[in-house]
Specification:
- There is one protein chain.
- By secondary structure, this protein is an alpha/beta fold.
- Strands 3-2-1-4-5-7-8 form a 7-stranded mixed β-sheet. It has a two-stranded parallel sheet with strand order 6-9.
- Helix 1 runs parallel beside helix 5.
Length: 255
Amino acid sequence: MKITIITSNQPRHNYLINSLSKFSSNLHVIQEVSSHKIYTNKNIKSGNIKEKYFKKVIRAEKKIFGFQHIKTQKINLLTIPKGDLNNYPLKLINHFLKSNLYIIFGCSIIKGSLLKFLISKNAINIHMGISPYYRGTDCNFWALYDENYSFIGGSVIKLSKKIDAGDILFHSIAKFKQDKFEYTMQSVKTTIDNLISIIEKNQLHTIKPTKQDLNKTIRKSTKKDFNENIIKKFYAKKISLKNKKKSFKINKYII
């Protein structure tokens, strides 16, 4: 199977690439490259709550995914600067756009001719959040913030013009972890693992997509919504997942 992935370069993104490379005969990867700062106690500025927060995120990602270095000899790789994706004419990346399956995960918002092309190819998007309830960015953070523990997880949906509004293929919810950072990161891995299993078994075409009811959206978040003031409020809530396992509701689209 020929597969094209458009993604980023953090360990969770490389994990998807490495997982697909194990069985894909022809894997094309367009990877946006951004710095992945390793926060330590020495380089965190005093009082910078955002850096302290991301240190915990990175630590959880390292624990769940380990170090993920992609095996470039197995893939056709194009690396581009973060945010430049929509600046590439289709004819310039044409070699990467001749696949049977297109997967979007963690890249910049896709626009213009590339978006139109990918929609025509029924591209799927790995969205970290339970759609339609949480759409946009940092969705599992917002589910925690709102104390809506039933909506921590991932969604595999069709790519659409509206943000995270495409038809749903399935939702994934991870096994319970009391550490909230590890739990949300485990949700990423569970979603990827479920998708990999479905693709490898050639079962993707057997899933009937379900239209989203966008009236059920609780939050549609953007990057600017996630700021130091919100993080302070988040910590002030003293959010704990202890004894919250029973709040998870099984959705019929969960794999």
